[in-house]
Amino acid sequence: MTKLHTGLTGTANVTVTEANIAATMKSGSLAVFATPAMCALMEEAACAAVNAHLEEGSGTVGISLNITHDRATAMGDSVTATAKLTAVDGRKLTFEVSAADSKGVIGKGTHERFIIDNEKFMAKVNR
Fold this sequence. Notes:
Layout: E1 9-15, H1 22-25, H2 35-50, E2 58-69, E3 78-89, E4 92-101, E5 104-117, H3 118-125
Antiparallel strand pairs: 1-3, 2-5, 3-4, 4-5
């Protein structure tokens, strides 16, 4: 099916700006990196870990995310998310994810994605 194997890693980076703070994303009222933005960055890192190893026409969709957001990040700081593929069970992929800013880890947990055929998936969505 694919050329996936445990140990694959990916990263994603973002700078904390007005666009991804809690006040803007309506996940709080403060000018700090929003939890939904951290979730998206972790998913982006997981995609980065596996996208180059998927068959043509395949993709992945997120099916679960179990994380903690342990510390706030100020505007202007940068955040890097890292994802490591820890299990491949048929089409289900499990990742260990974390995010860190210039002061250290701000969140961590696990994320699961499912391998899909992009065309078939979209056809089903649009039915």
